[in-house]
Amino acid sequence: MFTVTYAQLNAWLTAFLWPFVRILALVASAPILGHASVPIRVKVGLAAFMAVIIAPTLGAMPQVTVFSAAGTWILVNQLLIGLALGFTMQIVFGAVETAGGIIGLGMGLGFATLFDPQSHGSTDVVSMLLNMIAMLAFVALDGHLQVISALVMTFQAVPVDANLLSAPGWRTLADWGATLFAGGLLLALPVVAALLIANLCLGILNRAAPQIGIFQVGFPLTMLVGLLLIQLMLPNMIPFFARMIDNGIEEMGRVALALRPTP
Asked: How many angstroms separate the first and last alpha carbons of the chain?
């Protein structure tokens, strides 16, 4: 007769549940995998499949009951780690959307917005265009596989335990948030500079020949210049996105190391 003790059942449950929570938190918050268009069942199933593969390689788990106070705290720790890692990669795409917002504002397309199911709000069309290009580059460069690989490595950097996560990890994540503005401004800089020159030329033209009607000419001209610059930038966007994705993957490792509890 096959019998299972409570200790064995608890060991099997903890070996699967705690890694599953960290993986599910990352899947729910990471780019592409955590998109609102992906059904929740798919996210849960993907996280469970990954946990079944990864859990046997992690070694022994803490000898703690799942439903105890220490076990609940471990669940919270794994949830926070997964969310921090997923948010680290989301900042990369946030920088791309910031660049699109700056470009759209300079082109006069700041009022042209569409509903974004990811943010549950309105996003301008240039931001959505650049975000789609970045997502295609992310998939083409196996960014989703690199994110999963970086997640697996974090189990060695931050083992599953009940110790309090270190504050420097959150500070590292906050410092990485500066990329949201620095990377976005760097990506939008060529278009912003070209639009600035175009607006200066329009201002000089308005002073020289006021009868032209600069308000009728200015909007289509700035929009045309912006679209032309975006088209010219496309070949160089993919290497820029690749560099930002690599930086995001490396930052995931740095955030995980900084979150490691101090003994």
From this structure: 44
